[in-house]
Known about the structure:
Layout: H1 5-14, H2 16-21, H3 26-39, E1 45-46, H4 47-65, H5 74-81, E2 89-92, E3 101-104, H6 106-117, H7 127-143, H8 148-170, H9 179-219, H10 225-233, H11 243-256, H12 258-272, H13 287-323, E4 352-353, E5 358-359, E6 380-382, E7 389-391, H14 411-414
Antiparallel strand pairs: 1-3, 2-3, 4-5, 6-7
Amino acid sequence: MELDYDRLVALRKQSAAWRLLTASNAALMLSFFNKVFVEQGARSIAGAELVERLDDELFALNERLGQGTFPKSAKAYLDDWSALENGWLRKYYPPDSDEPHFDATAAVEKAISWIRSLEERSFVGTESRLNTIFDLLRQMTFGAETDPDARLAELTRRRHEIDQEIERVEAGEVDVLDSAGLRDRYQQVTATAYGLLADFREVEANFRDLDRDLRSKIAAWDGAKAELLDEVLGSRESIAESDQGRTFQAFYDFLLAPSRQDELKTLLAEVETMEAIGEPDPRMRRMPRDWLEAAERTQATVRQLSDQLRRFLDDQVRSEDRRVPRTSCRPAGSSRPGWRASWSSPSRRARVWDGGSWTGSSPAPPTRSASSRRARPSLWSPCTSCSVRKPRSGCRNCGRSRSGWRGGRSASSAGTTT
């Protein structure tokens, strides 16, 4: 990235980490975020718990620095820090909870990492980092080599080096790292471990940005649905198949292997017993667990975003289907009994007011043909005496029973006469 003037001006306006470092309460935010989200490794905290912890922090600072140093309430500070224009805390609602939760953003990790880099170090190692550069370059060149002869030559070289080392060990010549080399390598291990844990929040944020871009593409799509499916589900920009997704999945599979976990714990335990490194970093003991928890959280976020994207795509397709006008499936010219003319028929003309009278014909209401109607017995019949339409249960006007009605039962069939 070029650090020219215009680029830096734009970065100062857009970067949430830069805004955090220049904020009026930067010391309060950085100390509180570092204590809760970095040192303690919290990835998600309920709103009520975070308000309580911040309230205790504000009370202690106001008691020491004087009342009114931080006049706002803890909830007001959290609302300001999680506002869209700031972007230092992510406020969200988990699927199984109606209480807001908070998590630090990648900008917080970047700001804290930059603050840590300002501290003076009594020992700065360089040898291990140079060895790391050579190892990475060898991995890249060997991993991209397609010539079998070249691969065999490299493997033969490695075997020759291992054979020479075995011969030296058998002869009693053992090369041991000195204290400076051990401290150099341990310093690089801790820095890489912290950086990897901090990168998980940025990886998660990149997944959300990718999901947001895909939603925007789906909402603005004006082509065929088949092309949209190919573009979203088969594209390299899909969440699971992106470069970010494939790299994270490879790391997650590597870390999830039981043999790798056991080896990592064993190596950390052995390193902590070395006298050359002095006091070991206490967080390194639980670093594998923090990695695994952060990776599982990121993996859950990827699954959730993929499910939400699938539902969003289904909703877009259903919305498009509802906009398509329905047409009659009856063949043209069909004379099936009980069917009326289609509403889109050319014979259906609206009535128009020409200034003096209505012209045109109004559409006929939906009717059934005579062959499709069933004859239903009338519930009302006229009385033979008074000719008043009364219910079939009896005439309340003249008292005559139903047996004397027209259309009613006869006296013999009724069994009684009145």
